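Entry 12.
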Amino acid sequence: MNILLIQLKRIGDVIVTTPAIAAVRKEFPDAKITLAISRDGAALVPALEGIDETIVLKRGLGDFKKYMSILRQRFDYCVDFTRNDRSAAVTLLSRAKKRIVSYRVKRRSPWRRQAYNEFVGHRMRDMHTADYHLSLLEPLGITKASPKLRLHLPNDAVESANALRRSAKIDNQFAIFHPGSARQEKFWEPERWAEAIEHARTKWNLDCVLTGGTSRMEQRHLARIEAHLARPNENAFGGSIVDLSGKTELLTLAALIAQARLLVTVDSAPVHLAAALRTPQIILFGPTNPYHWRPRESPAIILQGDSGAPVIKFIPKQFRSAMSLISTRTVIDAMDSLLSSPAA
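Predicted 3D structure (tokens):
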């Protein structure tokens, strides 16, 4: 049995596909399972279980040899979790007996639908994303599989995180603050981040670790946050503030999140890392709908809008919400709630 799974989206999408990967492996324990993945998600590969081969695909025609290797393998089943032009082309090249995708492709893209012969009658917008991915396995006879996210951190990632903590002198309990995102509309005000960080540092005596990407947009946002922070001296009460933004590989960041007492972040990839690693977290949602992306296993408080209370009811369709509606007091109260819990 030769099975191809296609997930060419970003890091968070790959993590939320791990329940489907686990379900396929459980149903077909002796199959060869190949994962086609984008360069964005490739850094996760060492932490993924149940995969025999990984094919990392770049955009454009630069990976002609890899596309030809897919053509030569003659897969039995192919499941497309991505639904774009590139994944349709990969599906067609697989020549699989069953080529599976959502029925939305059949309705909306006349040329793409030619790549598939099985259409599953579920819509992503009606379900949590992990449930949607699992629903695509129904033509393989897989139903009622666990939606639990799964990552297995390799030892070198843990060792790298430990070395980074030693060099940064993070020997106290610590919280990670990850304010950045690829989308500026998800940014929360810098002065509010600074106030929340100072609260964690002084009230809870936590070292506060700033993480983020290397893009100019994220780095500018982090610089504005740091401009509002009063750097504690060695004799000051409370924990230290450490900026590790742009200094961690993805799995090193994951290992740090696994060791942290708390993650505070916007809707971004660390949300899914923390969910898979069961780290308590507070997530600030704005333009995206937590119905589709929220953690469901790890301790998590989800904040959105101006209600001042965590979101506990989720609906498939909602209006976009400005990040500025979330107050500093709401975030601080959420931190106090999780940090005072024995589970934290």
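Annotation: The chain has a mean pLDDT of 93. The CA atoms of residues 69 and 163 lie 39 Å apart.
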